TrEMBL record:
Pfam families: Acetyltransf_3 (PF13302). It comes from Saccharopolyspora antimicrobica. Residues 13-178 form the N-acetyltransferase domain. This is Protein N-acetyltransferase, RimJ/RimL family. Keywords: Transferase. Transmembrane segments: none annotated.
Length: 187
């Protein structure tokens, strides 16, 4: 079990639980169609955004299998995205991670930096054995991020879901704890 009680600093970012003050920053990227394109949700209205923030306010710990830890990505005092970790299985020590970044800040490695910290939390603090990531095969930025983090593409599912009005596929990536440790030793 882990609980995030104070902000985590990476080289350029602060990762921390969402607060009520983040509603406007969050809406700025959550309302964008280009951000929601490959996410399960539609672009959020102010009402959807407020409801989602209420959920996120409670997602600061992993206590039980099924829980989600969701941390705001803060850059220069503003929330520009988030990264998450879902505890998929306690006995099998499995997790799934994810990330979203405001398009104004793409192309600088910020999402990779935040997501790498979430992998560290999953492997080193929660003691996970394996973390997966999933993305639509058309989401080249997301696939590229996972490859940059050293994850292995283990599957390409064709037309595995009916997604936003059409058949969509899925790439599934994974990283084992031992592979994570080895990459840390080598870097
Ligand atoms: C997926 C997403 C987070 C990727 O954002 P991103 O900024 O491309 O990702 P990274 O942080 O890994 O940045 C990588 C880019 O920064 C460049 N870069 C610059 N400095 C860098 C650094 N210090 N470290 C790493 N990359 C760096 C890389 O070369 C790469 O550029 P490229 O896109 O031209 O190849 C973003 O596209 C997004 O939020 N999309 C909408 C939501 C979404 O689809 N989420 C995923 C659902 S599965």
């Amino acid at each position: 079990m882990i609980e995030i009680t104070s902000p985590i600093r990476t080289a350029r970012l602060v990762l921390r639980p969402f607060t009520e003050r983040d509603e406007d920053d969050m809406l700025e990227f959550e309302s964008r169609p280009d951000v929601a394109r490959y996410l399960l949700n539609e672009p959020r209205t102010p009402e959807d955004n407020a409801k989602e923030l209420a959920v996120r306010l409670k997602q600061h710990a992993l206590r039980e299998e099924g829980d989600t830890l969701l941390l705001a990505i803060e850059l220069g005092g503003k929330v520009v995205g988030y990264t998450l970790l879902i505890w998929l299985s306690r006995p099998d020590q499995q997790g799934e991670f994810g990330y979203v970044l405001h398009p104004d800040h793409h192309g600088k490695g910020y999402a990779s930096e935040a997501a790498a910290e979430m992998l560290r939390i999953g492997f080193e603090e929660l003691g996970l054995h394996r973390i997966i990531g999933r993305c639509d095969p058309r989401n080249a930025a997301s696939a590229g991020l996972m490859e940059r983090l050293g994850m292995r593409r283990e599957g390409h599912f064709l037309e595995s879901q009916f997604f936003k009005g059409e058949w969509g596929g899925e790439y599934r990536y994974a990283l084992l704890a031992e592979e994570w440790r080895r990459s840390r030793r080598e870097s």
